[in-house]
């Protein structure tokens, strides 16, 4: 195939767009000049594409009927069996539908990607199959993974298995419902503002967002490269730790990965207990404007239960935590907008580009009117502030991240772990179809004040269920220094052994 050569009208359009002010009679000279560049593009076009190897057989799967999909959690069901033995042998896994699984449809919750079929396996897919796991399908997620609730997917709302009519949490919403209902043992989600930990809190299971870059993001549809995290979802701490041992490590294809540890042993401390742990209860993680009293009280009660397990527990103040979400906001809205305009991969980084996904996303603006209100509001804000201030507030926020992270690191001088509510509230009711744009956006973004700061700082954080109220789970979040996931698992496993969280019922006044 020969690359289409630019025409006179193409260069005139580009000149106007770029402000070059070329006269029409100059265009002919530039058409000649650019022929050598076009010849280079011809060479690149003729070369065999660079792909990762797909080694395990699979079928495209089936789209389940409503009867076979009671929580609307599956997008497509299939079965991809890994090796006969390994640390994940016998475990059933769901993939969030922004993770590439070659030959199986993927739509990332969006109408714009309906019909897209990836041609590669994400690195995490290969690793879990090599470890003996079995993939049962792709789980629904929120539209382009922007929402923290479960009402924005083009395929319809995902329902919380713990209580009908309530949000399962987002954006890894389908994974949440499948884990909480016991349909799968493990799920791979992603987390840019809390999208693994929020569902864990709303639906009652263990959701780990590891240190930024610890798990390669290769082959997963990005949102904002400095926020992108692959996260792990499970019904037990042990399975979560085994999953991280399987997926962690360098793949040389993801620029997010830097200065990784050389050992990924997260199971060895599971039975160690809490006698040596110092836990700081972050004052600023409580009493938000939308905090529910039973959530704050249940998390404080759970923190006190750690004392009975031998941990040293005391309150710590980190005032800058209260501004963490505000620092996250310009990075999220401007970064998301810029990356989407770059066909979801942008440029200026080395690694694996999923060119088939870039092609599928190329004409997204032709379908932008179909976007849900939360995505529209993000794009409007991102475009306005990027254009009005030339990215200065994105840059200022990224610079402020260092100050915020230093505040957490300073607290770690006195504590091994920090503790706070994962989210300020329990899973709310799903919205009705006549909800206003304002209510739609509020419900999508109302819960991530505590989770978002650990996306921009990259610190590992895990939500674990610590009680329930009115039939809905309550989540407690543990945070550790970079690459200290084993300490989080140590504390989470001790709590899991000692307390049956559904029986830690909040005592209503």
From TrEMBL:
Q: What is a single molecular function from GO for this protein?
A: amidase activity
Q: Could you tell me which PROSITE patterns the record lists for this protein? A: AMIDASES
Which portions of this protein are annotated as coiled-coil regions? none
Q: Name one Pfam family in it.
A: Amidase
Q: Which InterPro entries match?
A: Amidase, Amidase_CS, Amidase_dom, AS_sf
Report the superkingdom from the record: Bacteria
**Alphabetized NCBIfam families for the sequence:** PRK07235.1
Name the record gives this protein: Amidase
The scientific name of the source species is Marinomonas transparens
